[in-house]
């Protein structure tokens, strides 16, 4: 009887311990599930952020490419204008040379010994 009573007490202690462990196991399972859900939600949020950042990066690259094309177009226009300015400058220098060599022949036609040219734009009163 004593042995049977001792075995029953041990059995009840083991059953109580088992129920306690079962409860702890269920609690840990719930915590694990909650953690998995939270991490899954965080991962989804981070994935959305990654997609948004990739879209922003792609848009920024496209915008940068557009700005680069616009800059290249402006640079081409500037170069064309520089070439045109250089051509006009050469033409003007050629005309100045032509006038300076031609002025010797023209001085004989001009009765004044030192011809002066006056140009007076509005607001200026000096003659050059």
TrEMBL record:
<protein>
    <submittedName>
        <fullName>Alpha-internexin</fullName>
    </submittedName>
</protein>
<dbReference type="GO" id="GO:0045109">
    <property type="term" value="P:intermediate filament organization"/>
</dbReference>
<feature type="domain" description="IF rod">
    <location>
        <begin position="1"/>
        <end position="99"/>
    </location>
</feature>
<dbReference type="GO" id="GO:0099184">
    <property type="term" value="F:structural constituent of postsynaptic intermediate filament cytoskeleton"/>
</dbReference>
<dbReference type="Pfam" id="PF00038">
    <property type="entry name" value="Filament"/>
</dbReference>
<dbReference type="GO" id="GO:0005882">
    <property type="term" value="C:intermediate filament"/>
</dbReference>
<dbReference type="InterPro" id="IPR050405">
    <property type="entry name" value="Intermediate_filament"/>
</dbReference>
<keyword id="KW-0175">Coiled coil</keyword>
<feature type="coiled-coil region">
    <location>
        <begin position="11"/>
        <end position="77"/>
    </location>
</feature>
<dbReference type="GO" id="GO:0005737">
    <property type="term" value="C:cytoplasm"/>
</dbReference>
<dbReference type="InterPro" id="IPR039008">
    <property type="entry name" value="IF_rod_dom"/>
</dbReference>
<keyword id="KW-0403">Intermediate filament</keyword>
<dbReference type="InterPro" id="IPR018039">
    <property type="entry name" value="IF_conserved"/>
</dbReference>
<dbReference type="GO" id="GO:0099160">
    <property type="term" value="C:postsynaptic intermediate filament cytoskeleton"/>
</dbReference>
<comment type="similarity">
    <text>Belongs to the intermediate filament family.</text>
</comment>
């Amino acid at each position: 009887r004593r042995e049977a009573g001792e075995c029953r007490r041990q059995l009840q202690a083991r059953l109580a311990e088992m129920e306690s462990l079962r409860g702890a196991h269920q609690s840990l399972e719930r915590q694990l599930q909650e953690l998995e859900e939270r991490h899954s939600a965080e991962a989804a949020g981070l994935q959305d952020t990654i997609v948004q950042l990739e879209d922003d990066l792609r848009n920024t690259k496209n915008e940068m490419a557009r700005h680069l094309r616009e800059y290249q177009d402006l640079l081409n226009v500037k170069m064309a204008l520089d070439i045109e300015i250089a051509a006009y400058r050469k033409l003007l220098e050629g005309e100045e040379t032509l006038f300076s060599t031609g002025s010797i022949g023209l001085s004989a036609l001009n009765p004044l010994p030192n011809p002066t040219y006056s140009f007076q734009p509005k607001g200026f009163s000096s003659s050059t």
